[in-house]
Amino acid sequence: MSTDRAETVTLRAPRHRVSRKAIWYWTVRAVIGWLVVLAVEFGWLVNAPTLGLPVLVLLVTVVLAVVHLIVMPRWRYRVHLWEATPAAVYTQSGWFNQERRIAPVSRIQTVDSERGPFEQLFGLANVTVTTASAAGPLKIHGLDYATAQRLVDDLTRTTQATPGDAT
Amino acid sequence: MTWPGPAEDARPDARPAAGEPVPTGDGIDPSWRRLSPRMLLVHPFQEIPRALPAIFGLFVAGTASGNQWWGVVSLVGVIGAAMTRWFTTTYRITPDYVQVRQGLFRRRELSAPRDRIRTVDVTAHAVHRLVGLARVEIGTGRSDRTDEGVRLDGLSAAEAARLREELLHHRPQPVTQPVAEAAPVAAPAARPDVEVVLATLRPSWVRYGPFTLSGFVAVGIVAAFLSRAINEWHLDPTRYGPLRALAAHFTHAPVGLAVAEVLAACAVFVAVASTVGYVLAFWGFRLTRHSAGTLHITRGLLTSRATTIEERRLRGVEVSEPLLLRLVGGARCIAIATGLRVGRGAEHGGTLLLPPAPRAEAERVAGEVLRDPAPVTAPLTPHGPRAMLRRYTRAVAAVVFTIAVLIAGWWFAGWPAWIWQVALLALPAAALLAYDRYRSLGHALIGGRLVARQGSLVRRRHALACDGIIGWNIERSFFQRRAGLATLTATTAAGHQRYEVLDVPQAEALRLADEATPGLLTPFLERHPHPHSVIMKDPGRHSTPNPS
Fold first, then answer.
1. Which residue of chain B has the CA closest to A129?
2. Residue span of the signal peptide, if any (chain B) (predicted)?
3. Which helix (H) or strand (E) holds B134?
């Protein structure tokens, strides 16, 4: 709407998706969360004087949980994207509020890779790339472990090749 | 943090009592030293107010139990503890480090590598100034924001000024005559480097004091103190003559009049307190540029402060206009520099380049600091009708929702009708706010700087050097995507760490980012021959409604 050029410039999404295994990891993690909620509600049901309301709440929770478990991991898998070139790291996240972050490799301060116990079960890792700015590190969740390792190695090597304190 | 080898200097008290050491030929004395012994006078003054509640409590408890010495003993204890701080603190300045050892039970050693030193602040509180001392704070720009850095509390004022000069300008200068006890913070006088004055406070600027609202803090403190006093000491305001008259007046006056009187009294008090605060904080304000590449700020009536900002750490400036100040044509100027946190309140930490002053003056100073007036004064590109619509919908929708709830409450739950009728008044106010917020929006790339302006309650215009941009965040909410807008955030290691261009058309956001950091976005850009194609299209378009 503001360019007079005949062509329109758009920012394409990052190329890569995270590991497909992340879908199952997110599902399992959500299942645990829902089980806690259901356990509490079941306890209420057992101790309640009348069954009507607790059963209704329990049913609604089950429906919500099933919908969430089916939709959330797949949706998240579609919208969490990343890409790394020799010059920049580029990520996208967010469902309704989409956020894209770009950081030049020359300004990277730290590259962290971490794996929680559940992520280790699924062979996944998170990679966090920070710059000297306190605003918004780039986080890539649910990468395949080998991919994460390679990404960290690549970024570390390129970052070390850049002189200066990157501020 | 890098620690020096322990064997490097095994003589912690090589020169124990040398409060005013005579510097060696290169201006550096690498042995461990103590702070000025005059701090023995200052420490109790600093500690007693802090410990006052405890001392008072012990005094009351002691009196109640018949032993009146408790209060005295605790007072002596506090003074003693304060004095041990002088005995337990040593520091030294080597060619590579500034190191401080402190603590009686918990020994700490802080060290700042000299090549990482970014700021040196010299502060002298009233008590410090009485005995001719100053506190030196050395900032290394660590971004975790919890560590306060190395602090030398209590050097003689001349020594502090010399140390600042030494640490920042890296120019060892031989001191030929004994260090004289000069003015509290010695003005840089006969020095080889050239000093250019960029701004000095004019007394007439005090007229902006009432509009800074810093007095609100004072009102809060006084109100909190009074309410505590009334509650804890069971004071009855009606027992005192003038207060009783006042209370009687309020109980008989109509409610509206009483409220108006209280508000007027508060307004007057805030205005007076803000003005006093302005004078205390900014009296003698002076911004200078040294040829060694630093900006130097001195200010303060009772507590004098001297801040130095290295120009190579400067990434830009911000001109901010809080609403009240803007109404009377005032503005202030703030530095965007790495290693300097942007503080809160009227003083903005050490980043303030000009206290509230006429707007033209703030713009002139910002231009002087940048060596280019254009980024602060040049006209900006507006963000277009969709950004305007978004300002109105956002401001008005919240008010409409609130009014709807209030009407529903009145209709179904019998809430008084005047509540929603009063709430209706918020509608024009919201519209006015939206109009002003849209008028503030603007952006441009001028002289290698990303310039953007936004806000109504506090309107800010920042000019951030493109070299200082270390990343981009492009945020698009659901509604922004529908409107074809994006919020472009430049991340940086300086100042607020993030500077936004709010609700800019998406293609324009990409053009700005691409021009500000050439090449960075290029691999991720796609050019479409059709002008009506969807901008920044989503790969996950199954999940989100089509933005077109």
1. B471
2. none
3. strand B133-139
pLDDT at site B249: 74
Give the tens place of pLDDT for each residue, A44-94: 888 888 888 888 999 999 999 999 999 999 999 999 999 999 889 999 999
Q: Are strands B286-290 and B108-113 parallel, antiparallel or unpaired?
A: unpaired
Element holding B419 (H helix, E strand): helix B417-424
At B179 the pLDDT is 41
pLDDT of residue B170: 60
Coil, strand or helix at B357: strand
Q: At a CB cut-off of 8 Å and minimum separation 6, what does B388 contact?
A: B438
Sign of CA dihedral A149, A151, A153, A156: negative
Partner-chain residue, chosen from B470, B484, B536, that has the shortest CB–CB distance to A104: B470
The residue extents of the domains of chain A are 16-78, 81-160
Least CA distance to B384: which residue of chain A?
A2
- Alpha-carbon distance of B273 to B57, in angstroms, equals 30
Check residue B374 and give its pLDDT.
93
**Amino acid A149: pLDDT:** 92
Give which of B491, B501, B512 to mutate to test A binding, by max A Cβ within 10 Å: B491
Q: Measure in Å the smallest separation between the Cα of A82 and chain B Cα atoms.
A: 11
Who among B476, B505, B536 is closest to A2 (CB)? Answer: B505
Two tokens, residue B443 = 């952006």
CATH architecture group of domain A81-160: Roll (2.30)
How many CB atoms sit inside 10 A of residue A103's CB? 25
Burial of residue A161 (CB within 10 Å: 0-12, 13-18, 19+) is exposed
Using alpha carbons only, give the angle A36, A38, A39 rounded to the nearest 5 degrees: 65
CA-based torsion, B347, B350, B355, B360: positive or negative: negative
ipTM (interface predicted TM) = 0.88
The segments of chain B whose pLDDT lies below 50 read 1-27, 143-146, 171-190, 346, 533-548
CA A44, A49, A55: angle at the middle one, nearest 5? 50
| A85–B473 C-beta distance less than 8 A | no
Q: What is the pLDDT of residues A122-151, one digit of tens each?
A: 999 999 998 888 887 899 999 999 999 999
The set of residues, in sequence order, having a beta carbon less than 8 Å from that of A108 and lying 6+ positions away, is A89, A129, A130, A131, A155, A159, A166
User: What is the pLDDT at residue B350?
Assistant: 66
CB-based contact (8 Å) between A129 and chain B? no
Q: Among residues B171, B181, B161, B89, which one has the least CA distance to residue B121?
A: B161
Q: Return phi, psi of residue B507, to 5°.
A: -65, -35
- Secondary structure (H, E, C), A12-30: CCCCEECCCHHHHHHHHHH
The pLDDT of residue B438 = 94
- Three-state SS at B470: strand
Decide if B454 contacts B460 (C-beta within 8 A). Answer: yes
Across the interface, of A7, A13, A88, the residue whose CB is closest to B527 is A7
- The C-alpha atoms of residue B461 and residue B501 are separated, in whole angstroms, by 10
Residue A100 contacts B, CB cutoff 8 Å: yes
Cβ(A111)–Cβ(A152) under 8 Å? yes
B405: amino acid identity, one letter: V
Over the stretch A5-56, which tens digit does the pLDDT of each residue have? 457 888 999 999 999 999 999 999 999 999 999 999 988 888 888 888 888 9
What residue ranges do the domains of chain B occupy?
A: 205-282, 385-524
- CA atoms of B134 and B139, how far apart (whole Å): 16
Under CATH, what is the fold of the domain B385-524?
PH-domain like (2.30.29)
Q: Between A and B, how many CB-CB pairs are < 8 A? A: 164
